[in-house]
Amino acid sequence: MVNHTTSSIQVIDRLARLLDAIAASNNPVSLKVLSAETGLHPSTAFRILASLSEHGFVERSSSGHYRLGVKLLQLGSRVQGRLDIRREARPIMEWLRNETGETVNLIVREGDEVVYVERVTPNRMMRVEQVIGGRSPLHVTAVGKLFLAEGGAEACLEYAARTGLPPNTPHSIADATQLWRAVKGSLQQGFALDDQEAELGVGCIGVPVRDSTNHIVAGISVSAPIERRREAWISTIRQAGDKLSARLGFHPENRPVVA
C-alpha cells in the first residue's frame, strides 16, 4: 500500500533541492549538473523540473538549461513587502542576549547617523542601555562603520569632510584616512568594533544585516562594559546577523567581495 503523505513529502523535498541547486548558480544550470548536485536520477529531476516550469517556478532555456522563474520573484516580493525588520529581529536578538548576557541592539542608518530601533537587555544590575530612537554619528559606532564601509572610500571621505568627525570621546576616530582604514577592515572581516568611541567605558561589536538586494539595511550589535566585552562572542554575533539577513532574503552566495 502506497503512503501518499510520505510520497508527497518526498516530492517536496526533491523539489526544494532542485530549486536550491538552481539558486546557488549565477548562470542557468543543465539537467546533468542538477542531477549530480541533488543526487536525483535525471529522469526524476526532469519530471519535477517540467512541472516547476509549467507553473512558472523555473524557466528552461532553448539550450535546455534551467534558471529560477518569475513566479518566485512575484511571491518573494509579496513576502518582502510584509516583512517587519523589528518583528523578524526580536527572537534572534533575544537568543543573542541569552548567549552573551549583554544588551543587544538593532540599528539602522538615517543620513549621517545611526538610529537604535530595537533593543533587548539582560537581567543584571550593570548593563548598557541604549535608548530606542537614540542617535549617534556613524563613525563612532560599530554598525555605523559598516554602513560607511559599504559606501566605499569616496563616500567615507565625503562623510568625514561633511561632518568634521566630531568626537564623542577621546577614543573617537578624528582622522579621515584612519577612519577609512578602520571601516574597510571591518567590512572585510565581517564585523566592527566600537572601542569606547561612542561612550566611555562601553565597548560594542556590530555585524551587518543584508536584505535580498545584498545591501546592508541594518546592523545588530552587542554593547557591554568594556571590561566584559569578549572576542569569543564574534562568531555568535555574526551568526545572529546571518540569521536575520536570511529572514530578509539574503543569500550567502551573493555576499559582496571587498577588495
TrEMBL record:
Listed Pfam families: HTH_IclR, IclR_C
Highest taxon listed in the record's lineage: Bacteria
SUPFAM superfamilies named in the record: GAF domain-like, Winged helix' DNA-binding domain
Protein name: IclR family transcriptional regulator
Keyword annotations of the record: DNA-binding, Transcription, Transcription regulation
Domain IclR-ED: 71-250
KW Transmembrane helix (keyword) present: no
Biological process annotations from GO: negative regulation of DNA-templated transcription
Lineage: Bacteria, Pseudomonadati, Pseudomonadota, Gammaproteobacteria, Candidatus Competibacteraceae
Organism the protein comes from: Plasticicumulans lactativorans
One example GO MF annotation: DNA-binding transcription factor activity
Annotated InterPro entries: GAF-like_dom_sf, HTH_MetabolicPath_Reg, Tscrpt_reg_IclR_C, Tscrpt_reg_IclR_N, WH-like_DNA-bd_sf, WH_DNA-bd_sf
Domain HTH iclR-type: 9-70
